[in-house]
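Office hours follow-up: a student asked to see two folded examples consecutively, so here they are.
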Amino acid sequence: MAAAFPFLPAYVQASETIENTSTAEHVIINGNRPSSLPKEIPTTIEGINARTMEQTINAIDAEDALKYLPSLLVRKRYVGDYNHAVLATRASGTGNSARSMVYADGILLSNLLGNGASFTPRWGLVTPEEIDRVDVLYGPFSAAYAGNSVGAVVDYVTRMPRQFEAHAKLVGFGENFQQYGTDKSYSGKQLSASLGNKQGAFSWWLNVNQLDSDGHPIAFANKLASAGVSSNAGKAVTGAIADKNPQGLDWWILGATGQYRTTQDHAKIKLAYDISPTLRASYTLGYWRNNMNSGVESYLRDAAGNAVYSGDINIAGKKYTLAPTDMANSKNQLEHITHGLNLKSNTKGVFDWEVAASLYDYSKDIARSPTVAIPQADTGGAGRITDGAGTGWNTLALKGIWRPNTEHTAEFGYQREAYQMRTQVSDTNDWMNGGALKRFSAFQGNTQLQSLYAQDAWRISPAWKAIIGGRFEQWQADQGAISNATSTLPFATREENYFSPKAAIAYKANEDWTLKASAGRAVRMPTVSELYQGSISTTAIVNNDPNLKPEKSWTMEWTAERVLNEGKGFLRTTLFHERTRDALYSQVNTMVTPNVTNIQNVDEIHTTGLELAYQASDVYSRGLDLAASLTYANSEITRNDKFPISVGKWQPRVPAWRANFVISYRADEKLSTTLGLRYSGKQYGSLDNSDSNAFTYQGFSSFVVADVRLRYQLARQWAASIGIDNLNNKKYWAFHPYTQRTVVGELKFDF
């Protein structure tokens, strides 16, 4: 029955069964592989396996695997988007990266050093060719996860061989991008190779990947028309494009910026050794390197036709001042390393245990930008260097499973997550290649979360099952400090304790119907960046609040699932509700004089919604598969004393409607074709919903996007695919422009 559901993780055949109390009844995973998943899963779970990905998705980045799963959206702006591809879930928008957790083989990839677009999960540590399966748990209903799971938990399980195997894949892609004054083609390529083998008790896997991506511009220099001064002063220029900003105000678009050219190298080795038939040790070493150069394109021309990048300019009789940084290049040089170690027993007897540890290290993290006008990308000059060396996180988990009888399965454990952020901004006399000189600013801080959790799955009767659990957490923030060029302001240590109860119950009415209900509390702690990343003026803190409260959410869901067509399909209906107090958002505090804009606690947000999910295989004819989902969410700010005008408004970046539809046809064992549709409704980017003009730079728009893919098995070891993402060439926005029509071609070899 499970194999009939192409998007379910149950499709994967393996050696260990994990209860899910769903229509499929079991999620099948390999118990010998590291995974963050608990054995008993008291919540809605969706997933996709490697075979389905290969047939249906133009997957270049790891996050592409989530493209059609219910209620999920990854804000991927271009191929290889490494610093803004944030995951959104049912009641959390793309500005809330800390409200979801992403793992790969038990290693935490979520960047919980901060919350927001620039703290994206480290997707680059996984490549699509490695992925064996991806599972998504919706909501904070498992005691095995911290409060960051309030939105969802994404768990990647990557390949481990059972015999010798080798793989290689070449991908090419191209996009014609037209926006404002830019009309250019951007392209790239990706090469991936893998080797693996299992020899007796020892198995190994090696994957290398290089992505060379030339992305479209993601930002646009602009000036409000009202900022101009009526005057004949300034250099007269042409080429400025009249537009309206998200608030409907007239502005001039002056040029394109943030045109990223990235070269990303990935390497990973995984080793596993079966110490005994029931005890396995495994180790993962991952390496990711990214060199990025950002270009600019000025639309402005002087009387001689020369491009204008800075200085006083005159547009339609008004003078404006272009700062050197309004149209500025930038560079990133990043090298990140991750380690994962796992020791796991799998007796399936009375007691099993697991020890897991991971480390994510910013071995090198350099950002360079100019502070002077640079008319050409290869021109040096004064600038600043931002160095993040010393930043990273580490985790430790001790887990136990006790099965005293067939009615009870108890899971318990201790977890520790520690985050360290170190950022120093220095002046330099050569922003492209020079060394750091005088300190301009700096900030640092640590947070640590230690947790004890336990949950018991009680098989009350053949038809009834309950899961009850709880999580006790001790949170600490210390070594916080913020600096300007001459002064450092330290912050006091904070320590707080919280308890989060969890409960779920499932009733299997008959062979076709299953009913479930889940409830759980989640406490999402403030991140290092939210607490300490700001600036100081004399001895006053600017732009941050080290006394932020954690977000506290109660989430509930009620689900009815029905098996269809003799096990070849299913239909799920889920009603969900979330009440969040002290939500963390950047906003204006209008209750003080002068007004302050920084990250603050929003008193209360309520979200109520309905999610429908449908999947079926061999619909009407053999080889025709369907998957569809529809999500409605009414997400409203119900109390916000610091910014009262936002009360009654929609939560930012959470649309009322989302939908996905995928139809795939396998004509035979060689040929498969897929059409996918993605829809997201109206949304806002601001707490007061003042950004009503969505289809513009810095707007957050609705969209309907179509994708197609055709795959053909050329021979036993060779396959080719061609696909188009955004077939209808929709121009849509999430502050930055999304990718326009992109053609993707693949050639793959498997041995």
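And the second, which I mentioned at the end of office hours:
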Amino acid sequence: MTEAEIEKENKEITRQYKELLRVSYLTLSDEDKKLIRSAFEIAVDAHKDQRRKSGEAYIFHPIAVARIVASEIGLDAVSIASALLHDVVEDTEYTLADIERMFGETVAKIVDGLTKIAHLKKDMNVSQQAENFRKMLLTLNDDVRVIIIKIADRYHNMLTMDSMPEHKQLKIASETLYIYAPLAHRIGLYNIKTELEDLSLKYTEPEVYNDIQSKIEETKEEQQEYIDSFSHTIQDSLDKEGLNYTIKGRMKSIFSIRRKMKVQNVPFDEIYDKFAIRIIYKSDKANEKFLAWKIYSVVTDNFTPNPVRLRDWISSPKSTGYEALHITVMGPDAKWVEVQIRSERMHEIAEKGYAAHFKYKHGEQKEQGIEIWLNRLQEALENANTNAVDFVEEFKLNLYSKEIFVFTPQGDLKSMPKGATSLDFAFHIHSEVGLKTRGTKVNGKLVPLNTILHSGDQVEVITSEKSKPNQSWLDYATTARARSKIKSSLREEKKEVAEDGKEILRRKLKSQKISFNEDTINKMVYHFKLKTSLDLFYRVATGSIDNTQIKDFASSYSNAFISFFKNRIRRTPSQENIDKEEITAKYDQLVFGKEEEKLKYKLSQCCNPIPGDDVFGFISVTEGIKVHTKNCPNAISLQSNYAYRIIQAKWIDSSQQEFTANVQLTGIDNIGIISDLTTIISQQMHVNMRSVNFSTDGGTFSGKISVVVKNNSILIKLINNLKKINGIDKVVRI
């Protein structure tokens, strides 16, 4: 570079630095400016020899990220300094210790968090990517600002991605849609979320993006005229009320127009609510709510509202802190228009999210909204034992979820994700309440645990010390928190059952004159094609490995010739984790539909599902049910074109499956006989009763009991135990 070019570049760096201080959202003290100045100087020095792919000096990137953090997100001086330094430790000679020495512990912690994220290798398979995402979120424990600066960094990368090769553009854009846009949405950074989505679309579907963008440009004047005609109609009425307000029109984002076109399956011209109108009014805090409803009444006096589309986030703000009144009205030319009514304070919170709360909450008070949000993230993160892909999927569900508001019996308002069930609510109150849930009441009526809640429901949880989760609860719960608690409870319970199984097996082997030792256990695990010794004990306890199978094992075990060959074969490395402290699922059966029926099926060739995959059934015309994985290349077209031929399907561990069986009893009517029956069924055998029906006649009784058992051997054992009760004459399965 020539002297003149270097001079020009330095001038530009200085100009951008001054601009950074000028546009900062929060007022910066002299101390703040000093901190930012020294961070800037270190960053300039550290990156002095580096250039970006586009050829410009690298320092422009940290300044741009700091500017997004300062003006668009509106964070404090510590965040601005950290943003300036975010690549220093990763890319230059400076160490974390240097940063801590110069800028203190907080900045060092944030920079360390950002460096950890940057170190996650970029070109990995999906599970590794998901694992990295989990690690990235764990840096939230250090400081939420890590994630916010990371979002700003990603935003600037997306803005300057033109000079990258196409495959990289595609990868970064997809990752942005997958992770960063939902995160920005959840933190309340709606503007940045929208920008990230639009920029991602620009690289993932460039033709679609350019097409919609050019159509928006073409209709700009027309749109402005429409907004003006809408405004003129209500301006006089608003002025009469003496309100101080502005009316702005806003085009929906390219991404959301694209989503609408896809969902409604219509072209651009047929999307009617392409823009929203915002009325932003000046108000002190005391009159905010009153004025919002006053404006609402003025708007609805002039235009007919759609009663189904009223959203009142002023009385109960979203958990991101968002407050506004949204109404959809029939505007001029019979077009639906969304009108958003918000005060200047609400508008700032909608634009800046988290940071605006600090401006309005002086002093050390941390804004509650972000606290609740962080606690929720924390809960999702606590669940370290699911695999990473499940974790990211569940986490995304929680990020994208719309909210409903439900009441406790005391009248407290609780925010839950849309689609949450009454069982989710029990875990939302407290995990101990969830684990002891016996039943739930919604609006005073007893309802099943999988009842989906709606805004305004009042929910009461009935608990019992004896209640505990069972496998079907996983079908009832939708939130990550409830599911993780249920899974860990079921794991613990299975371990207890396995302990009993260990003793049963010890006795059974003793009767077969086989010693109970590690070698025998390993051979049995191998013989039954299981993964761990706990699997073996558990399946013995539940009866899915019964006496006959154990005798078969014993006879093959004592046959020296067979065991010699088996030992030769057995020297395989597959048994390394036999002592793992877990009970694994053995996906050996496919079931279909809500009723989980066993039907004939074929596995499709296009995606070759294997046991344990997420799958669905497709009823073909000639070949019966064909099973596809949910991420099969043909899945989307099948599900959209032939939705009526799709049937739910899932792999299950047949040893976990529960069946209902009916048992008929006859005998002599004794006092306390019912009590003896129920004691044996529920306490000794750990079997659930579905229904009981008894009748007596002249000193004899007959009855029918419906029980839920895991397999036939448990049922036979139960029938034998019932026969031993004094007064019972006959017990048969019907």
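Two things to take away from it. The first strand starts at residue 245 and ends at 251. The CA atoms of residues 154 and 626 lie 42 Å apart.
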